[in-house]
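ARCHIVE RECORD
Type: protein–small molecule complex
Small molecule: benzoyl coenzyme A
Source of inputs: curated submission
Record status: active
Notes field left blank by submitter.
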Amino acid sequence: MADIDYISKIPNNVDLTSNRRLQRALEDWQPKFLAWWQDMGPEGFQARDVYLRTATSVDAQGWAKFGYVKMPDYRWGIFLAEPEPDRRITFGDYKGQPAWQDVPGEHRGTLRRLIVTQGDTEPASVEQQRHLGRTCPSLYDLRNIFQVNVEEGRHLWAMVYLLQAHFGRDGREEAEQLLQRRSGDSDKPRILGAFNEQTPDWLSYFMFCFFTDRDGKYQLASLAESGFDPLARTCRFMLTEEAHHMFIGETGIQRVVQRTCELMREHRTEDVRRHGGIDLATIQKYLNFHFSVSLDLFGSEVSTNAANFYTAGLKGRFEETKKDDDHQLKGATYPVLAPAGDRIVSRDEPALPALNERLRDDYVVDCDRGVQRWNQVIKKHGIDVELALPHRGFHRAIGAFAGLHVSPDGRILDAAQWEAKRNDWLPSAEDQAFVGSLMTPVVEPGKFASWIAPPARGINGQPVDFEYVRLG
Ligand code: BYC
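STRUCTURE (tokenized, with ligand):
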């Protein structure tokens, strides 16, 4: 295929055709990406027509074009949000200076690491979810998971664009490695813990979309404040797509809860398992697991990396410009929870190294809002049970609580106490086997698996029984 045709297949607003060096790098990378997609993308549905949204430009008309597409033909484009004229750096040591259009030399390594870490999560999640199509609870849900997968692919393109456009040979090497690491592979794992966990069933998947994609929202929002303008603009556009992923998580769990409550009412029992539902106690255990591994994604409570990212103007806070302070935080403090003997106490730490914890706090508040909306569904059914986020120290592998045993209500336990309760707090092998046993595919338009209620409405104004994926 001629170069120019090839490049014009990549919708973009970065004037790809005028940059020969970048074109060549992308021409070299695109077939490798497609080979990765065939190997590690959704299993079994590559030849099917899927009703997908594709971004063909960043304006209101172009960012969500719907139509049937075979996934390997999806147009993975490169989009940056529109530039802000005379944009300035809003925080850190360079506050007030013009935002950088090129990589600042002294922060090159740090910036590259941030972009690679972000980029690595995107293909990882596709790998984690690749087998789920085979057990979809409906065509509506099948289409939604494929939408998420192609967009995570596009987010990988977004990071690879930054690496190839701004980091020369190092960037090209990083772009290769992003296609070589594999989720859960002990020899070449993905970078962050949660992206090496399995997503074995659809309950885990909905929890992942609610909790782990929400980490994506907070990390992208912080990078959207970056003084490196191409990164800021890239993340801003990614955030528009991210909202749908969290919608899938929130409404997915809400529909599971709804169905559970219906079965509880109908059969006058909490034990809905024998009626094909997922009991609220099991839902709570899955919530505990996914919340805790997602909390780890924010890094340590006190982190010199976080302080350096901020001081260097590379990564800001969530809604940085709305914060009412000096945006440098040199003398400021921030309260951080930490274990002290057998208790958990709040300590004032210097605000700069506490920035991971501050972002985690914003995230926890957002998660809790969603949990309360699920609780509304339970309450409407007249059922006296509440789902709740566990304590932030529960089941942590990164930071001050790593290696400790903290109960969901925030008590420090010894190993024996923890082991005795572990299966009450986290999905046991038996819980996982039960949830797994429900995962039989439902692919008739408008039909749903026994354990999940239909959605309130379809996608893009289409009816719920629309043929979202053509399997015939
Ligand atoms: N697992 O000072 P520390 C998304 C490493 S999700 C393994 O505590 P720092 C998406 C850390 O790298 C958003 N390792 O933390 C969602 C460091 O290693 P080095 C992804 C971890 O650096 C769903 C060492 O421990 N985006 O988009 O302040 C589907 C000490 O680090 C973990 C980003 O993460 C962990 N959980 O912060 C699809 C944004 N945590 O450097 C997509 C970019 C820490 O000593 N990344 N470590 O070798 C960052 O901002 C930071 O790297 C982190 C860590 C917030 C992740």
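CURATOR ANNOTATION: The longest helix spans residues 229-267.
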